[in-house]
Amino acid sequence: MTRQILLGAVAVLGLTAASASAETFTWITFKPQGAGDAQARTTQWLVDEFEARTDGEHQIELFWGGSVAATGEIPEALANGVGDFGDIITPYFPDAMPLNNAVGFFIPQPMGTLEVGEAMERWHEEYPQFSEELESQNLHAMGFRPLETYGMLCREPVEGIGDLEGKRIRSYGFAYPALIEAMGATPVSITTADTYEALERSVVDCTPIGPALARGWKYDEIAKYYIDMPLGASFGHLLAMNLDTYQGMDEETRAVVDQLGADYLQEYARVLEEDRARVLELWQGEMGVEVIDFPEEDLTALVDDPQVQAVRDEWIAKAEEAGLPVDEIVSELQF
């Protein structure tokens, strides 16, 4: 049975979920169908795999480009049963999901894309507090989509920490504002979608980002210097489900979903690395983007800055309150 969904955010948020035994589930996403990046391509891969692994008995219908719920509405839409599956930009909801935003409080950190995803998988398996935080909002994490390892894309060359003083740098979340101020720069809060224009108009001089994402948003048309600053991979998206949908699935279908979540991380990391390599090759050629090594010691020295430490301490306090073994988790997030 296919769900009938009325497109349009206001009307959609009033709908109730159909039976969890439906043969066709729904996936709501902010990603445009034609994006062509690793996130969009592997989302389609997951949907195709779900149908194949259930021998065509079950399907997932994709609703692209925020047609059902905008980025900021997806957690509530999933919780209310408007969609069965969806991708949540976790850093946009730090107050609702502080534990699941652990990596976002520890920038810079030493892990890459796959390592961050595997850490999230392990934390969810070993520490029930991570899942309980989502379950309290009628959500279930069936998979994880970290972002790539970040550096800094700038309009002018940056050779070391001194070159960042006075720069205006795009910022978001908790760790980046403190880190940017520790650099002697000014954090400027701007959405991903607005950053191209901000770079073009010199509203910002730099933005933290990775090569694949920079190419996807075409920032590299404006900013021609990629500073290979070891910021580590940011945690990006939960592949989330309506908890009632997940619990209402038969045991065999739940097993397919669980395995798909683990397999998705591996496939996504593989595709993302291919994209990253392709972009770096483009930069060396026709795009003309210069990659500049940044002294690692210049960055890691900033971790001791009181403002940076205050952000980390904020997460530690929340984790201790939740009863988590803080030292074990934090040890993975420190150089």
UniProtKB/TrEMBL annotation:
Q: Name one Pfam family in it.
A: DctP
- From what organism does this protein derive? Roseivivax marinus
An example GO biological process term is:
transmembrane transport
Q: What is one GO cellular-component annotation here?
A: periplasmic space
In the record, which residues are listed under signal peptide? 1-22
UniProt keyword list: Periplasm, Signal
Q: Is Signal tagged as a keyword? A: yes
Task: Tell where it localizes.
Answer: Periplasm
TM region positions? none
Task: Give the chief site where it resides.
Answer: periplasm
This protein's name: TRAP dicarboxylate transporter subunit DctP
